[in-house]
């Protein structure tokens, strides 16, 4: 991939974080001004997200974990990742890490997957994303006069299968955002040409059919996105959308999530407690094997445009403003 293409990808991701649909998002303003050492930029998405079904047994699926990092000074670090069939409960896969360090910015990522058998007191086969993260941070030799872009990505792709046990006729789907999960995007206000953004997002799907006599699977169970940027007036944005068949109240879930978030100007937005979401019982046919899986992504972006580019941007904005006033 050419350097210009890689820069475009990083910038497009940053724009995406800023232009998420306002109708589906709820924002929270920072509780205090961001702080940090002179010349700082820091974007960070980190934490653990559990997913699964409360009934059944894990059968063979193919998991995959990927991590990559890119810096405009040094290019890509693209480890091959890992994939394979699930092992016994309690197995851990990874970590897989990537690092791309330039003169001013350092991009790093880590992807890890763990299996577990119990969650919230239930016999709940499932998996979590381990200690996965994506991060872009200033280096000790940060040079605000040197244009540089960087981004990091971590992916956990986690398909599996499940079936209800003897005497059971339903299952519940769950997702749990673990305490300590966090996002951070800060930049020195004395460097108006610098920016940072971070996002944690994901989804879960199933082939679960409410009635095996038809072909109406539940499909997408839920999607979520938690994002922030250094120039966002709303602090952070969180969205959660679930399949109506799960019987969840998305507005209540978003409110519960926000109430669990604490803000620190140095560490960003962090969940102080677990946020556990469990669906209503969904009828299931004993002995029938259903597919279940999804993806969790961690993204971080940092940019230091050149002073000349920043000056041009300001002049362009002034020209547009002048034209609008004249109109």
What is the rounded distance between the termini? 43 Å
Can you summarize the main beta sheet? 11 strands, antiparallel
Round the Cα radius of gyration to an integer and report it: 22 Å
Low-confidence stretches: 1-36, 118-123, 308-327
Strand content: over 45%
What global shape is seen?
Answer: globular
Domains, number = 1
Mean pLDDT: 76
Tally of DSSP β-strands: 23
Residues in helices, as a percent range: 10-25%
Task: Give the class from helix and strand content and strand pairing.
Answer: mainly beta
The secondary-structure element order is HEEEEEEEEEEEEEEEEEEHEEEEEH
The helix tally amounts to 3
Brief sketch in words of this structure:
About 15% of the residues lie in helices and about 50% in strands. By secondary structure, the chain is mostly beta strands.
What's the arrangement of secondary structure elements?
Layout: H1 3-18, E1 26-28, E2 41-47, E3 49-53, E4 62-71, E5 75-77, E6 82-85, E7 92-101, E8 105-119, E9 122-128, E10 132-138, E11 148-157, E12 160-162, E13 170-171, E14 173-177, E15 182-187, E16 195-209, E17 217-229, E18 236-242, H2 250-259, E19 261-264, E20 268-271, E21 275-278, E22 282-283, E23 290-304, H3 307-326
Antiparallel strand pairs: 1-18, 2-10, 2-15, 3-9, 3-14, 4-5, 4-6, 4-11, 7-8, 8-9, 8-10, 11-23, 12-23, 13-22, 14-21, 15-20, 16-17, 16-23, 17-18, 19-20
């Amino acid at each position: 991939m050419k350097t210009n293409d890689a820069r475009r990808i990083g910038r497009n991701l940053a724009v995406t974080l800023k232009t998420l649909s306002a109708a589906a998002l709820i924002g929270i303003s920072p509780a205090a001004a961001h702080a940090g050492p002179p010349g700082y930029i820091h974007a960070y998405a980190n934490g653990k997200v559990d997913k699964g079904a409360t009934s059944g047994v894990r059968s063979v699926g193919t998991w995959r974990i990927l991590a990559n990092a890119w810096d405009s000074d040094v290019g890509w670090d693209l480890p091959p990742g890992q994939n394979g069939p699930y092992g016994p409960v309690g197995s851990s896969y990874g970590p897989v890490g990537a690092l791309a360090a330039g003169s001013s910015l350092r991009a790093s990522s880590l992807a890890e997957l763990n299996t577990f058998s119990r969650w919230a007191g239930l016999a709940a086969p499932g998996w979590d994303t381990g200690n996965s993260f994506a991060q872009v941070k200033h280096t000790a030799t940060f040079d605000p006069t040197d244009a540089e872009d960087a981004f990091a990505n971590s992916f956990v792709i986690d398909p599996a299968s499940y079936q209800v046990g003897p005497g059971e006729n339903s299952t519940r789907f769950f997702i749990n955002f673990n305490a300590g999960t966090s996002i951070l995007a800060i930049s020195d206000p004395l460097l108006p040409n610098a920016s940072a953004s971070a996002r944690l997002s994901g989804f879960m799907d199933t082939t679960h059919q409410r009635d095996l006599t038809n072909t109406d699977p539940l499909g997408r169970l839920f999607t979520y996105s938690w994002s922030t940027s250094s120039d966002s007036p709303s602090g952070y944005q969180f969205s959660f959308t679930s399949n109506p068949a799960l019987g969840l109240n998305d507005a209540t879930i978003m409110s519960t999530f926000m109430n669990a978030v604490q803000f620190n100007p140095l560490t960003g937005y962090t969940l102080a407690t677990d946020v556990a979401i469990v669906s209503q019982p969904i009828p299931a046919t004993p002995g029938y094997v259903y597919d279940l899986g999804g993806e969790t992504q961690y993204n971080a972006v940092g940019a230091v445009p050149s002073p000349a580019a920043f000056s041009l941007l300001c002049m362009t904005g002034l020209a547009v403003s002048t034209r609008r006033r004249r109109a």
